[in-house]
Fold:
Amino acid sequence: MNFNQVLPLLLDTTKSRNKILTISELTRRIRGSLEQEFFNLWVVGEVSNLRRPTSGHVYLTLKDTDAQLQAVMFKTVANSIKFEVRDGMEILAFGSVTVYEARGQYQLIIERIEPKGIGALQLAFLQLKERLEKEGLFDPAHKKPLPVLPKKIAIVTSLTGAAIRDILNVINRRFARVEILIYPVKVQGEGAAQEIAQAITDLNAISDIDVMIVGRGGGSLEDLWAFNEEVVARSIYASKIPVISAVGHEIDVTISDLVADKRALTPTEAGELVVPRYDQVKDSVEKIKTRLIQALYNKILLIRTRLQRINNSFSFKRPFDKIFRLQQDLDEVAQRLVTAGKHTMELERERLTGLANRLDSVSPLKVLNRGYSITTSEENDKPIKSIEGLTIGQRLKTRFFNGGIVSSVVEILKNEV
Structure:
């Protein structure tokens, strides 16, 4: 046994016992070591176990196929992130490693975060665009038409930018006889979106504004970002005044462009969209005036011709001829009625004559004329048909063809069988 090798080990162990550390001291040393070694670094990983407690801090796990790392974004950092961090998202996280002493757990304090493969602002733009589109903020049915000839135009932009000069120059050149109200706002940086949104809301409280231009000149995506903020999009959507969005250049498409009633590719084009050219309007008015005068002249000619035709008409010159013709027609109708009445009376007379002849043929007078007579009782004038009931002395009436007699029964004779 080599005592020369064992002895130094025993001496070191004995020496180290004189420096026993508490857990807190050890953890603090480890924390200090980690914070010095792993300071300001980028980490790539997949987000999982994302949690957002009421404190506002965001807790998550970054992992790859073989390992995982606990991470935390404190509230101030989490609120500054433009896009929404979700489970399963590949991200790049910038920060420092430290130790959460209460659990003895090392973790990454994230100070900045970006999606992998796509810029943070671009992802935030796509996420907000998708969400607002689902809500219908880009629906063409919601878009309001621009007035053809506005009297009052409001412009929401910066007073120091080139955009306001471009817009005013174009409007003055095309149609200077229009009132313009400028609402100056910040168009980039902290608080710009809130100022733009408030300006749109304030202008909607003014009753005589016909149309509104909201925009700014070109710049980077970061410079234009205020027009990609949700608060601006919702204020444009809620505006009762038609809104023209004129942000950046043609290639710059912002959320405000998609929500607005009309997108102008540049601020200059916004000036062209908002007012027509005065000379073109004047020319159109002159053409309309000429057409109206010609139409009125043609109408007068037509009416004059019609009046002349009426004045020269037979009815206008001899108005009673019409009455006379109607009276003639009335006389003819009356004559036809008289003729028809006579004809009807003749037919009725012939029919009555026929009936009278038929009645006369069956009249009892005809029988009496042939030598027969009718005997009736004097008391009730009933015909005597039999000797039954007759009494001697009874008075009878006998009627002949040309008169009658009253007699009394002297004798009753019965027929022998």
The CA atoms of residues 158 and 184 lie 5 Å apart. The chain has 13 helices and 13 strands.
